[in-house]
Amino acid sequence: MKTASFFTDLRFSDESVVITPMLESDFGKEIRIAFKKGQIMKEHKTKFPIAVMTLKGSIEFGVGEEMFVLHAGDVITLEGNVMHELKATEESVVRLSLHKGDTVARVKGVLKL
C-alpha cells in the first residue's frame, strides 16, 4: 500500500508548471501538476490513455477545436494519440493519471515544446 497527498509540499513556479510524481503502482502512475494562473502545457499527445482531474482551481483543456473548462472536481479522459493542451485560468492543481507504460520524463518533456 502507498499513500500520498496532492497538497503536501505543494510548490508553484513563475518559470513553468511544476510536475511532481506522486505514486506509482503495478497499473499506473499519478502525477501532480501545479499551475500558476496563465501557465500552459502546449499541445502534445501520448500513445497511452490518460485521465486529467482538476483538484484546485480551473483549467482550459483543449482537444482539437473543442475547449473544456475543468473546475475543481472535474475529470476528463482521453484515448491515446489525441492532441491536447492545458491552460490555467487561475492557480490550479491537476492530477494526471498515466498508464503504467507511460513515463514522467515524457510529461516533463512537454514543457520543452
Description:
By secondary structure, the chain is mainly beta. It has a single domain (28-108), classed as Sandwich (Jelly Rolls). It has one helix at residues 104-109, and strands at 18-24, 28-35, 40-44, 50-56, 58-63, 66-71, 75-78, 84-88, 92-99. Strands 1-2-9-4-7 form a five-stranded antiparallel β-sheet. It has a four-stranded antiparallel β-sheet with strand order 3-8-5-6, with no helix packed on it. It is globular and about 35 Å long. 21% of the residues are buried. The model has no long low-confidence stretch (mean pLDDT 96).
**Shape, please?**
globular
Fold-level CATH name? Jelly Rolls
CATH architecture: Sandwich
Give the end-to-end Cα distance, rounded to a whole number of Å.
Answer: 36 Å
Strand content: over 45%
> What is the β-strand count?
9
List low-confidence stretches: none
**CATH class placement:** Mainly Beta
CATH superfamily: Jelly Rolls
Mean pLDDT: 96
Calculate Rg over CA atoms. 13 Å
In short:
The protein has 113 residues and is mainly β.
Task: Please specify the SSE layout and strand pairing.
Layout: E1 18-24, E2 28-35, E3 40-44, E4 50-56, E5 58-63, E6 66-71, E7 75-78, E8 84-88, E9 92-99, H1 104-109
Keywords for this structure?
about 110 residues; mainly beta; Jelly Rolls; 5-stranded antiparallel β-sheet; 4-stranded antiparallel β-sheet; 1 helix; about 5% helix; globular
